[in-house]
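[recover] target loaded
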């Protein structure tokens, strides 16, 4: 049976282990299964709150699911979403991939383009999620329950087990368009959730417009102030050099502070930097 046939025959209640009545109760009372608060967005360089042009402070809605729904979402993730194959270019929310594996392919590349998708999760609406799963061959029942049980207030919430997986799947069509374009122009492309990175040994400034147009055609917005094209850049928090990658200075400073701690103390910054540096072993 092909993957499309399997998706079309999927009986969602059986996969999740809940009766249709139980799932319908969740769907009807979805507002009771979320918590909500707002966090101020902080500028990492100035450590000050980000503001709009009119001076209003930017805030991010955090909407984690409560335990009963979270359990169902984890089952959706493990039993359905994780079975959908993602290209090797996608690193966020994928097992054995991280911001480190996202940065590594760009090592040694002379030219780099980085950009950021603005309000990524909230921009992904319920209708788009439903349509995506129908296009992927899932039956209407499955597409309905996946959409209803992973969205809130008509959009993808930040703080649930399924949001990163759903966003990856919704962005798949755009990923493949970018992969094809970059392949034709010898450009390396990776994505870590809402961070997109492109690099090459050759100047590809003339292709930037085409790259950004593909992203904009997806209906998502690009953060222009986070779009950079130059040779020396930090990619998803990792410094990229010609023959190695490393942690940024602020992490290295924390590592030096941890060197004064007693033996046996947990040293998260040291462990993190070691994970970065071990990717350089065997490289000349």
């Amino acid at each position: 049976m092909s993957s499309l046939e399997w998706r079309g025959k999927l009986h969602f209640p059986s996969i999740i282990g809940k009766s249709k009545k139980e799932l319908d109760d969740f769907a009807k009372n979805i507002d009771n299964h979320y918590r909500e608060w707002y966090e101020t967005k902080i500028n990492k360089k100035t450590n000050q709150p980000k503001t709009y042009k009119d001076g209003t402070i930017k805030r991010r809605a955090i909407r984690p699911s409560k335990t009963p729904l979270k359990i169902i979402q984890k089952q959706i993730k493990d039993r359905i979403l994780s079975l959908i194959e993602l290209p090797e270019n996608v690193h966020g929310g994928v097992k054995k991939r991280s911001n480190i594996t996202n940065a590594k392919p760009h090592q040694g590349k002379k030219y780099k383009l980085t950009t950021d998708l603005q309000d990524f999760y909230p921009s992904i609406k319920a209708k788009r999620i439903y349509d995506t799963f129908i296009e992927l061959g899932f039956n209407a029942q499955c597409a309905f329950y996946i959409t209803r049980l992973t969205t809130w207030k008509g959009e993808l919430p930040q703080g649930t087990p399924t949001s990163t997986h759903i966003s990856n799947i919704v962005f798949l069509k755009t990923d493949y368009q970018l992969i094809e374009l970059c392949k034709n122009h010898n450009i390396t492309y990776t994505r870590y959730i809402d961070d997109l990175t492109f690099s090459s040994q050759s100047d590809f400034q003339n292709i930037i417009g085409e790259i950004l147009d593909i992203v904009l055609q997806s209906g998502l917005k690009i953060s222009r102030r986070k779009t950079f094209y130059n040779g020396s850049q930090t990619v998803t928090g990792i410094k990229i050099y010609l023959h190695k990658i490393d942690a940024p200075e602020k992490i290295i400073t924390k590592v030096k502070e941890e060197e004064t701690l007693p033996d046996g103390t947990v040293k998260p910054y040291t462990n993190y930097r070691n994970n970065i540096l071990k990717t350089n072993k065997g490289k000349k």
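[recover] notes: DSSP finds 13 helices and ten strands in the chain.
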